[in-house]
Design a protein that fits this description.
Number of strands: 21
Strand content: 15-25%
Oligomer: single chain
Largest sheet: 9 strands, mixed
Distance between the termini: 24 Å
Shape: globular
């Protein structure tokens, strides 16, 4: 079963929703956050990235940052204003990006089920990032950005969601990046039906937001001493989307140098193992990796993945790491090696070309996107996805629905 629980959302008024809504805290750096929030005192980035309102070079983990976040949160409650719903509810949240549309259900989900593996994860988390969001939640007494979940599509859930969308919208606006965000509030009957429909879903999968989920679990442990059992901190704010509607973009790689190789010798080494030929910037299928080297795109054909590999090691991103990046370029741990960087697929292959042509990087690799089914297979086997292997678009917005704990 997958437990979904209605909650009394803290939310902006419809008139202020577009100004409050902000990209997730972890997809922008401090400089980008500052630029996005400039001239908009209602931007939720003043809460999620409060260092933008402190002197430059402020440590983002300094005590002053969390104090400023609380101050800005309280100010936003008054000025936006943010209002708390008079009764618990669930919400339907639709994202539209160009021709792509995906519609999920927003609510709170059981941290007990997260810890038991009903809500499955595929990523290791970093202690420093957990420390940051745990303190942010505890100091604000709120979860202000939803975890992004997926599940194997349910016709029953789809039917109820369509019923909810026949009603009046709560929010409907297009963000500066062109993504349309539309939210409906379920009525009492639809709410009960959604709870029952999710009860028949065996597993949920974290697509994005592993640090938020882990931090919510840690915040729950710390708050239990004062809040007691069976409180709001027993649940985590999330939006769950059917797998059939998810859009996964590749997480591409750029490498600063070729180590001991020249472009010619690196290419020769590749050709000892793989078929390499002129090809497009975007790989045509699984097993193909596009490489931008020496001002031209070529396709590396990795061939069929050996059948004895586990679900994670069969992925193109793993095979590129194991067969090219580690043995030929000496990049062992992509989490710590400073010679490699990552470019989300939303930025396009033109970004890869620009980075290499600028001289900052020697080679770029454009990957075929991992599928949601690949991710689920890895999770179901108890595995971990390779670092930086999935980029989900479009992104949810922080500040539209907050969960007070």
């Amino acid at each position: 079963m997958a437990l979904i629980v209605p909650f009394r959302a803290l939310r902006p008024t419809p008139a202020s929703a577009a100004r409050v809504a902000a990209v997730p805290y972890d997809v922008v750096n401090a400089g980008e956050a500052h630029a996005l929030a400039a001239g908009n005192p209602l931007s939720f980035l003043h809460v999620s990235r409060a260092e933008i309102d402190l002197p430059g070079q402020t440590d983002p983990y300094a005590d002053a940052v969390y104090r400023k976040a609380v101050e800005n949160f309280e100010m936003l409650k008054r000025q936006a204003p943010l209002v708390e719903e008079d009764s618990p509810s669930l919400y339907v949240y639709r994202l539209k990006m160009g021709n792509h549309v995906q519609t999920g259900v927003a609510g709170t989900f059981s941290i007990d089920e997260y810890e038991r593996g009903v809500i499955k994860k595929h990523e290791h988390t970093r202690p420093d990032k957990e420390d940051d969001r745990t303190r942010h939640m505890i100091d604000l007494r709120a979860q202000t950005g939803p975890v992004f979940l997926t599940y194997r599509a349910s016709h029953t859930v789809d039917t109820i969601v369509n019923d909810v969308m026949r009603g009046a919208t709560l929010f409907d606006f297009t963000a500066p990046d062109g993504v349309q965000h539309t939210i409906w509030r379920a009525d009492e009957g639809e709410l009960r039906d959604l709870v029952a429909a999710f009860d028949a879903i065996p597993s949920l999968y974290i697509a994005d937001g592993h640090h938020r989920a882990a931090s919510a679990a840690r915040a729950r442990q710390q708050l239990r001493a004062t809040a007691g059992p069976h409180c709001e901190s027993d649940r985590v704010l999330a939006v769950a989307f059917p797998d059939s509607q998810m859009q996964v973009l590749p997480y591409n790689r750029v490498v600063k140098d070729l180590g001991s190789h020249s472009p010619a010798s690196f290419l020769a080494k590749l050709r000892e193992q793989f078929d390499v030929k002129e090809g497009p910037a975007t790989p045509a299928r699984k097993g193909h990796v596009a490489m931008f080297l020496d001002d031209r795109w070529q396709t590396i054909d990795l061939g069929e993945a050996p059948s004895d590999l586990n679900a994670s090691d069969r992925l193109d991103v793993s095979r590129l790491q194991q067969n090219v990046l580690a043995p030929l370029l000496g990049i062992g741990d992509v989490r710590s090696d400073k010679r490699i960087d990552f470019v989300g697929g939303a930025r396009g292959t033109a970004e890869l070309e620009q980075l290499v042509r600028s001289g900052k990087y020697a080679v770029a690799f454009s990957l075929y996107p991992v599928s949601v089914d690949d991710l689920m297979q890895v999770c179901d086997a108890g595995g971990i996805m390779p670092p930086k292997s999935t980029w989900f678009e479009p992104k949810l917005r922080d500040g539209l629905l907050s969960h007070l704990i």
